[in-house]
Amino acid sequence: MSAHTADTELKLIGKLILDAELHCETGLHIGAGKGSLEIGGADNPVVKDAFGHPYVPGSSLRGKLRSLLEQATGAVSPSELVYLSRRKGQEVRIHQSDRPDDEICLLFGRSPGRVDRVSGEAVETSSASPARLSIYDAPLELGSITDSMRENLDDELTEVKSENAVDRITSQANPRTLERVPAGARFKVRMVLDVLCEEDKELLARVAEGLKLLEDDSLGGGGSRGSGRIRFSGVRLLWRGRGYYSSGAQEAELLSGADLGAFQRLAQDPELAGKLAE
Question: Where are the domains of the chain?
């Protein structure tokens, strides 16, 4: 846990800007809703921008990182979950801690609302806490889809994977198709960590941990069936103190062209906090 307390005062000290490349090691499927059925089209298309290019939604990347960090820190134990609502007849419970030093809620935010830990009765939470971590939509690097790749793709930028789900009771087949961004594609990732107090400087190490966990997990759908294995490279970390915004002070480049190992070592360096001044 961090050194945050209920009396910690929040004031912008600066922002840590993290840029990196996300490489698809296997096909990547992040699904989009489909309002109409096209003859010959994939049953499960990927999400695309207004130009028809696949991208990685910031919400997908953010949600996966939060889920992995919650599992790693034990935040998914029943005692840590609070009642949110009922959907389709089932209770929905999420992690939302009242502790001021809970790093998951510090990174991803804490909303005020009605929760239930044990009795099932509604109880008011503590005040809201602003999210420190912002993750933006990651656009596709079009140059990563080479001409030789395009010759073998079902679409200009994507492939279609055919699957067959078999009912284990009746043996009835249920064929389906899954649109995927092909292995070899790259996306440009950007994250911003707001440092609102001295204690927030410790949260960078938790971000590095989440990214390393993601490399050994999967992103998007079909992860248990081989889709969504990714890796990060070309990590660049910038520090922009408050003076950068108020008076045009220079930004500081803390890391460039690094892998996640180097990023994690920097994030855990006890001398890093001294470099992050207003």
Answer: 14-275
Q: What is the pLDDT of residues 188-237, one digit of tens each?
A: 999 999 999 999 999 999 999 999 999 999 999 999 999 999 999 999 99
Residues ≥6 apart with Cβ < 8 Å to 29: 44, 46, 161, 178, 179, 180, 181, 220, 221, 222, 227, 228
Tokens, residue 177: 């198709």
Residues 6+ apart with CB under 8 A from 41: none
Say how far residue 17 (Cα) sits from the centre of its chain: 15
Nearest to 94 by CA among 115, 112, 108: 115
Q: Which residues are CB-contacts of 111 (< 8 A; sequence separation ≥ 6)?
A: 96, 125, 128
pTM summary value: 0.86
Tell me the per-residue pLDDT of 186-199, one tens digit each, with 9 for 90 and over: 999 999 999 999 99
